[in-house]
Write a structure and sequence with these properties.
By secondary structure, the chain is mainly beta. It folds into 2 domains: 20-102, Carboxypeptidase-like, regulatory domain (Immunoglobulin-like, Sandwich), CATH 2.60.40.1120; 122-813, TonB-dependent receptor, beta-barrel domain (Maltoporin, Chain A, Beta Barrel). The termini are far apart.
Length: 814
Amino acid sequence: MKHFWLLTAILLTACVPAFAQNSVKIGGTVTDDNGNPIELVTIRLEGTAIGTVSNLKGRYSLKFENRDSVTVIFSMLGYQTRKRKLVNPKGNISLNVVLPPMDFELGEVSVTERRRQTGTIQQIETEGNRLMPDASGGSIESVIATQAGVSNNNELSSQYNVRGGSFDENMVYVNGIEIYRPLLIRSGQQEGLSFINPDMVQSVGFSTGGYEAKYGDKMSSVLDITYKKPLQFEANASVSLLGAAAYIGAAGKKLTWTNGIRYKTNRYLLGTLDTKGEYDPRYIDYQTFLNWTPSKRWEAGFIGNVSENRYNFQPEDRYTRFGTLSNVREFKVFFEGQEKDLFQTLFGAAYATFRPNERNSITLQASAFHTREQETYDITGQYWLSELDSGMQRAGSATAGSGAGSTTDTSDGTQETMGVGTYMEHARNYLTADVQSYSLTGFHRLKNHSLQWNAELKQERIKDRMREWELRDSAGYSISQAAEGPGLFHVLHSRNTTDSQRYNFYLQDTYRFHSTAGLFTLTAGVRGSYWNWNKEFIVSPRASLALIPSFNERFTLRVAAGVYYQAPFYKEFRDTTQVDGTTIVSLNRNIRSQRSLHFVAGGDYNFRVVNRPFRLSMEIYYKALSNLIPYNIDNVRISYYGRNLSKGYAAGIDMKLFGEFVPGTDSWLTFSLMKTEEKINGQWLPRPTDQRYRLSLYFTDYFPGSQKWKMNLKGTLAGGLPFGPPHSGREAAVFRTPPYRRIDIGMSRCIIDRNRQKNPRGIRNLWIGIDVFNLLNISNTNSYYWITDSRNNQFAVPNYLTSRQINLRLLLDL
């Protein structure tokens, strides 16, 4: 036996060189034209499943059995593919490859590979959308509202709903800093400017669900904005009937500085509403972004914003016709009084980043937000509700005593007064809020891993003093009669102060790896939060996986799942109770975070038609909702129940076709189907955002033979939303608004175009344009005003949005 084992060892030792001679190892570095290493380049043997990917330094290593000849393929999105043929390779071979960027020229058009979406955040191009017709004044949110799964049924507002969520369920970040919006705003007319200045934006990332752990505690979506750092001096200005804006950016060797100022007034649009009067809305804001890079290791910056939104209104009269062709009703009101609203916000954020090397960085960040809001109005209205003949035109005047009906003959027919009366609305609402945030964030790259972590402290202090009441004295409507007159229909008192702290952290990793199936991108993380107001600690694990399959690299497949909490913020935990007919607002310390479990699956298919790029995207999703706080929506005001009373779900499918329908321009068509319900008191009810379908279109075109004329078309067709009488439970919301239908079109002419010059001086671009808002002049319903006739029948009088209007604008680039 000893001789046997000795002989076996000798034979094995002799065979090792033979095995070694049958294997080949190749390795090297993959770089671009400038000598920079390229990460995640796919290196594979043609006709086999053998392959690998390059690391952070562009290095790779690949082993295979010896053969007569092999062809090694080097490929990477955005770069040209290179092939190297090796004849009778042996031993260790060093093979370095340079991949030039992909760039094809077709005449005067440059077509490049588009960035793949391998996570739950999609990158949205906004540079080419400056000429988009937009009644809200050219906001980034108007582009977001045309994406799949997103809805906005109010052109006067920049707020949007995502996959059945409310406005409050959407997060907005600018350079990694969470942005807040005013709390008392109840209508799109009051809203004014959004925080995001589109002239200062470098990139836009948006997710409709299943997003990463680094984003905060909201249930629906995240909008991630990055402000630009200019490479040289740049400036632009715009002016239209809706306002004006100016932007200046400067750059030095170590310092960049951008500044933007905007002024907006929608008086011109508000003049098309049914309620006539003296509108005086004025909105102005100034933003600055300063970035200083003294060395490769250090970077510091500051973002500041000052904003003031004023809304003054003196109503005069209102005339609204509604109903069906065979049953037409007229609602006419004469007003006295006025409304004065003020929303002032201050925001500042400073950060410092230390990078000891290319793979590691640590950022210290501090921010502060302050808002001072006041809503005051005293408005009296005397109204007539009349029923008209189906064939009559506008009726003449009608008179009646309070609490009675009458009939007036006209040459066109008859008008029967069904109800008359007076209502009075009063409010003195004041609110101040301060939010301070301090955070430490780290980023580390380890081979194929990208690790991120963060720890954050938030301090919140909110103080409100609110008093509202409403009197309605009309036929069959007065709810109680006291000795001194009719009782109040609605009374609300609130006098509260909150002072709390939130502690947040997250840890996540993005791992990229290659297998025979293709290129995988796995992102997984966990987020935690503690709020000392209700002593609640929440944990949110989240993960997503994307695959670019090797069998067809035109596909990108994605799945995501996670737990998402809606941590309560002031409005959510305002509980109301009735005391002697008065609604008293108290703060609920037993409130818990709303919870949503996201399940998302989808993908993209990239293809070319007539040598132009297109992408077809589709996602299906399901959200299991629990600990919900029911709410009602009136315009853009959300009124919460203040308690966790229900559970629910949201499910649907989103589709988007994106591409160059016209060479050199981006257009898209989106279609969404969705259903969302919640269970309240044992009954399943549609949520206020239950919009069953939505079709959106954004299309750009040039005139034949000339790119100086440009047309932009934006269209929306969406299903109606549930609604019911005010100050009633959700069980009464058994009606639906009519579908939302709107088309806006803009025509623009380029007067000066010097972009093709190497060093243009003075004006680079000058565009003049004309927009037609609501081209088909469709009366879309925003909300309802409820009244009662002499027979004690309730009627919902629609509050229509803006009608057809023309806007002129001028855009200038320096």
